[in-house]
Amino acid sequence: MSENTELVTRKDQGRDLGHQLPVIAPEVDIFENEHEILLHADMPGVHKDDIAINIDNGKMTLSGIRRVSFDGASTWREFGDVEFRRNFSVPQSIDTDKVSAELKDGLLRLHLPKSEAAKPRQIEIKAG
Predict the structure, then answer these.
(1) 71-128 pLDDT, tens per residue?
(2) How many CB atoms lie within 10 A of CB 43?
(3) Reported pTM
(4) What residues form DSSP beta bridges with 77?
(5) Domain boundaries 4-69+78-115, corresponding CATH code
(6) 10 Å Cβ neighbour count for 16?
(7) What are all long-range contacts of 116-121, with beta carbons under 8 Å and residues at least 24 apart?
(8) Exposed/middle/buried for 94, CB within 10 Å: 0-12, 13-18, 19+?
């Protein structure tokens, strides 16, 4: 059974880019606590509408396109259009219906909450 959850849709997904953009893997920090897995991805210059996050059958793909416009003639360019893309394995214990994301100052914060069954719990021992 395949569960496909598209969290954010990129507006230009169907648009022909005309040429292939360079692909860069964004730097990522991953934190875990008893309630969730928190992923921080560095995606400078990417707008919210240009980010796609897909979770399908235990695989997660993050992608975002940065477009840079310039005024005037270019004499030297090292900073341009690029696609950030990275793939991850996601545990089945993640509650995909409650996944959320936020983008601020080029940092994507992705909250992957654990399902109740996956959270640790204390077992009470009763005296007989």
Answers:
(1) 888 788 888 899 999 999 999 889 989 999 999 999 999 999 998 776 667 778 888 7
(2) 24
(3) 0.74
(4) none
(5) 2.60.40.790
(6) 6
(7) 117/93, 118/91, 118/93, 118/94, 119/34, 119/35, 120/34
(8) buried
